Amino acid sequence: MRQLMSTAAVVALASTPALAAEGGNILLDTNLWVLLGFLIVIGILVKQNVGQVVVAAIFKRTMTIASQLNEARTLREDAQKLLADYQKRQRDAEAEAEGIIAQAKADAKAMAAEAKVKMEEQVARRTEAAHDRIARAEAQALAEVRAQTADLAIDAASGIIQARTDASAQKGLLDRAITDIRGKLN
Question: Which of the pair, 158 or 45, is modelled with greater confidence?
């Protein structure tokens, strides 16, 4: 700073003889007054230690910016950690979803196989029930045919017996034969 003031003084003194050679008044020269004002301001700034204040302010601002940069780095690292965590969670969720889908497909196949087995069992039961009904109907039809045949045989035997025997013997034989036949057929 002091060098700057001494340089300014040298320049002011060097310009004064040139002005005097021209025949002008040194006190009317505006350049001189501007230079003197500049030197006074610089002198006041040097005396008040403004340079140190400016340097201290710049240093303080530098420290604030450095602190903000460190905080920004920390926030960036935290954000990267969070991003990695969320990406891991997303991958885990996708894997879980794929597992659920695979399980659902397996369950669907198992249910389809179970339904097929149950349907086959139901068809088998219904087929067996139909066969049982048919067998019962056949047995019932056979029993009806036997009953009708027995009735016809009884009627025929009754007719033959009536034609060959007398009335009182016929009646006793007929009653006994009817009772025996009915007991054997039913």
Answer: 45
